Structure to design on (756 residues):
């Protein structure tokens, strides 16, 4: 084991010999040192404050702004000494018999009342009586920036020390000159609870008795640049409701055991259909207010179960100051947003989902963070979490800051957060937002606006290593969980494992959003059917690369907002054709290899694009076309789960075969999906409004074939051009020995299965 890296101590640190030189009988200190305490510029308050051996006695010093008088009580509550005020300061000093430890005395403080009110008395346990509490091994791991779970030590943790209940605070700020805990318990006065610097790891810590769950706090940081900043806790488990920005003392929730059932439910061969949700606008109460986590558990989870979805994907639930960011500009990665309840409430929501057999995936944002003053920006007076050079550290598109992935402590902060959500909230997986922006140094930048990597290239090598290490960490520590990449480029091997040394190979994601499929399908479907024959390659192109990665097929919130219109609104034709086109598209999506993701509301086809400031237009379900669309999505999900051929080999070319991909003139596709057992499902898509009578298709097996899904059925709002049982004939067709004749409905997808 190597020694931890040493860090320079603050300029105002007082040495032990200096402290010993103070007057033993009274504990008085030099005017210079007193001034440093009173102005909260002292870098080492533990060298002065609290009890200190002085020969046969103990010198006791307490800095208590606002106090009129201070006496010392023993454990039984009996007075043993009076502390004297030094000069006209807030420092009270005196001498005690030797041997008084942290639980052996209390301070009885008479406080000045506000606006001339009478003084009141309180009894305090001295925080400066307690030794360092971070264990040596954890100090070393924090110093190396390789702690897998720094959240167990950093932040605020209610604990009991020597029989005293309080909260242990710790924060990483290696360049700070001084850091204090300020909060509702000390009148937000940075002089009351100045922290101890653990030089070995650049972390400041203090145990404050009496402070417990629900107390508000921040860190007051005197930065390396001499500027004073008031910062929320980067590791806070709870935060105030916006626009307030304080952190809230919150116990760390107990860990969740590894669940093999969830591992199987998240596997490549599992049926996965994801319902993407923005919690603030899925539904609201009668007053138009947000639903709580408890209310959402009672409404959303039963709905998802009824609709046949297997997973819920939540747009970011970590704390964020601006509603309009939808959580994608987080200031509290470790705090479930207070908009919907407490952390315990969110965990109860997840547990309710799991009890119902529904997995929960969170949108996770390690790509950037906002510049809000209470956040991570210039945290200790230096560019601690972000790059100093704006060509590396500033997102021009989003006016946000970019994490410095080359710094071990930053990587640890983020990777630990991934584990935190999985281990403490039973989350099934994380969908990593904006991966492309992390992978490339020139992302959305012109020439001269970015800094090449050490090889002169555009790849962000540090971010790539971070992603590999994080995915490896999750995969080894929590094998039931999955990591999903929103990656919009052709970066290779996103879902392939990295090399053993994590310096090469793939990125190690379990799944990747297929943005190319999404863009091609939407562009094709937006065309008038008469023109689709000229763009046949666009609808079939995805099958050229469908098995190069483990794909999720997404129609996400990004496609139905910011002027893009609704999915229904993108479809061509009159109202009937719009609904038919959308049903056709969903049928093609559920038949296509890959896991499925649909944004909330799209299951019943709203006319207008999504508005995050109000609930979905559920009243549309009173109208048959919308109710029919919802029924179709429900049935597609149920068929997906019931038929292994539609999901078991999603990521393997063995699970797919073309029957007919060349009929551009009629805009028709026919393909089969296969299971390991030999089960087949045929998928037929007619992308024109023309009914095709007597249409012959090849089938891979002899027998009777029947409709499993027909998106033109009247129960879905279609024209009800349906087929009864279809007996195969020994007529070779489309490379198959057997074939059937059927009627192809207009603008529709058929799924056929052999019944005998």
């Amino acid at each position: 084991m190597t020694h931890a890296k040493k860090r320079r101590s603050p300029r105002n640190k007082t040495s032990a010999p200096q402290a010993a030189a103070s007057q033993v009988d009274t504990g008085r200190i030099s005017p210079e040192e007193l001034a440093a305490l009173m102005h909260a510029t002292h870098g080492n308050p533990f060298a002065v404050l609290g009890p200190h051996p002085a020969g046969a006695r103990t010198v006791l010093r307490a800095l208590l702004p606002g106090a009129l008088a201070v006496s010392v009580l023993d454990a039984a509550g009996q007075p043993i000494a009076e502390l004297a005020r030094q000069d006209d300061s807030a420092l009270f000093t005196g001498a005690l018999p030797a041997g008084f430890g942290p639980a052996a005395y209390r301070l009885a403080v008479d406080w000045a009342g506000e606006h001339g009110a009478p003084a009141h008395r309180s009894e305090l346990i001295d925080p400066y009586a307690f030794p360092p509490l971070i264990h040596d091994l954890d100090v070393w791991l924090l110093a190396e920036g390789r702690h897998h779970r720094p959240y167990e030590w950093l932040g605020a943790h209610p604990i009991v020390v020597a029989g005293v209940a309080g909260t242990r605070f710790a924060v990483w700020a290696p360049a700070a000159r001084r850091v204090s805990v300020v909060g509702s318990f000390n009148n937000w006065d940075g002089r009351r609870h100045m922290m101890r610097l653990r030089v070995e790891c650049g972390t400041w810590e203090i145990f404050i008795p009496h402070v417990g769950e629900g107390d508000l706090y921040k860190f007051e940081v005197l930065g390396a640049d001499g500027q004073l900043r008031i910062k929320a806790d980067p590791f806070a488990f709870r935060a105030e409701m916006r626009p307030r920005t304080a952190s809230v003392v919150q116990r760390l929730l107990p860990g969740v055991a590894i669940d093999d059932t969830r591992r199987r439910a998240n596997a490549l061969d599992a049926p996965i259909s994801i319902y993407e949700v923005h919690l603030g606008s899925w539904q609201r109460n009668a007053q138009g207010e947000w639903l709580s986590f408890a209310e959402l558990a009672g409404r959303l989870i039963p709905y998802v179960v009824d609709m046949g979805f297997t997973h819920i994907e939540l747009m970011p639930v970590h704390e964020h100051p601006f509603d309009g960011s939808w959580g994608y500009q987080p200031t509290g990665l470790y705090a479930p947003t207070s908009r919907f309840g407490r952390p315990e409430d969110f965990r109860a929501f997840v547990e309710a989902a799991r009890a119902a057999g529904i997995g929960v995936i969170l949108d996770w944002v390690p790509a950037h963070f906002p510049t809000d003053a209470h956040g991570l920006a210039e945290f200790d007076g230096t560019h601690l979490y972000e790059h100093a050079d704006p060509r590396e550290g500033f997102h021009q598109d989003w006016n946000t800051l970019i994490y410095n992935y080359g710094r071990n402590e930053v990587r640890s902060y983020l990777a630990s957060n991934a584990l935190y959500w999985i281990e403490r909230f039973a989350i099934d997986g994380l969908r990593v937002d904006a991966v492309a922006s992390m992978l490339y140094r020139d992302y959305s930048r012109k020439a001269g606006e970015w800094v090449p990597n050490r090889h002169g290239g555009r790849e962000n090598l540090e971010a790539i290593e971070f992603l590999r290490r994080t995915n490896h960490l999750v995969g080894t520590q929590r094998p039931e969980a999955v990591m999903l990449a929103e990656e919009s480029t052709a970066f290779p091997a996103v879902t392939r494992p990295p090399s053993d040394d994590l310096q090469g190979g793939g990125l190690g994601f379990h799944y990747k959003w297929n943005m190319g499929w999404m863009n091609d399908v939407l562009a094709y479907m937006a065309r008038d059917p008469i023109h689709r024959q000229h763009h046949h390659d666009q609808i079939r192109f995805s099958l050229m690369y469908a098995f190069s990665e483990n794909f999720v097929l997404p129609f996400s919130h990004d496609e139905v907002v910011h002027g893009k219109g609704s999915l229904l609104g993108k479809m061509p034709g009159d109202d009937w054709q719009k609904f038919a086109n959308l049903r056709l598209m969903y049928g093609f999506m559920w038949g296509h290899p890959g896991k499925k993701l649909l944004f909330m509301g799209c299951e019943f086809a709203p006319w207008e694009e999504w508005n995050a400031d109000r609930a979905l237009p559920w009243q549309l379900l009173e109208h048959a076309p919308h109710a029919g669309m919802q029924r179709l999505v429900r049935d597609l999900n149920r068929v997906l789960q019931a038929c292994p051929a539609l999901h078991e080999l999603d990521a393997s070319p063995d699970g797919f075969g073309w029957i007919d991909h060349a009929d551009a003139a009629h805009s028709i596709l026919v393909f089969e999906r296969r299971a390991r057992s030999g089960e087949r499902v045929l998928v037929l898509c007619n992308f024109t409004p023309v009914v095709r009578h007597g249409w012959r298709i090849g089938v891979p097996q002899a027998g009777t074939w029947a409709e499993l899904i027909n998106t033109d059925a009247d129960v879905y709002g279609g024209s009800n051009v349906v087929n009864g049982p279809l007996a195969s004939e020994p007529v070779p067709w489309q490379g198959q020995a057997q074939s059937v004749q059927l009627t192809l409905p207009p603008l529709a997808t058929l799924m056929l299965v052999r019944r005998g």
Observations:
- DSSP finds 15 helices and 35 strands in the chain.
